[in-house]
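Morning run. Coffee first, then this:
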Amino acid sequence: MTKLENRVAKMEKATAHVDLDSMTDEELHAYAGKFPMFSKEMYAAVLTLVGRRPSAFPVVHDDPERGR
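And here it is:
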């Protein structure tokens, strides 16, 4: 196998059966760092991490009665 094939095989093995929800924040950071930028695995780890945080934006209610 070539170097590239070895790297691809390692990445595929690392992504097999991963439960992102059970990982700690530090594990998610490390997991996301294993993959190339903009890869689906990196995005999955980052979005899982971001999803754990409450929103910084206020909730806007679409209720006409509330504006009066």
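Residues 11-52 form one domain. Good start to the day.
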